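During the practical work, I selected for study one protein's amino acid sequence and its backbone structure tokens, as given directly below:
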Amino acid sequence: MNDETESNPKQLEKQHFIEEVALVFEDLGQPRMAGRILGWLLICNPPHQSADDLAEALQASKGSISAMTRLLIQLDMVERIGFPGERRDYFRIKPGLWSNLMRRRFEQISSLQRMAAHGLDLLADEPPEVRQRLQEINDMYAFFAEEFPLMFQRWLQRKVQGS
């Protein structure tokens, strides 16, 4: 943290937010620095930042910024953009990121439900206590697989109405 951050409460709040995003991202199994980049890209102005901008804002090495922006691009969370007449690349949150993440989550839920259903088919002749672990997975994910598309559709409608 630099002197400017310590003397500017708003800047300090931003640093806390960035670290909050980083910790959440780390809890999801990703590197904390990737979460810091994501956190900064969520609140920075302009919404696109060069690698130098990111390194300065996050007080990080260019090597770390390079590795983590590549990871975020691979995760389809960030995109690299350029502007006519400029040689440097910029990074920004990929448009539609949050909707796309939710779609992927739904695909994971559906896959888990199908896996559990397959396991239950394999254990069709077994007593309920043997099937119980898979039954719990199947029941929960079947519920989410049924409800999620309805919730997502309502979200999309709300988004369109709010635009």
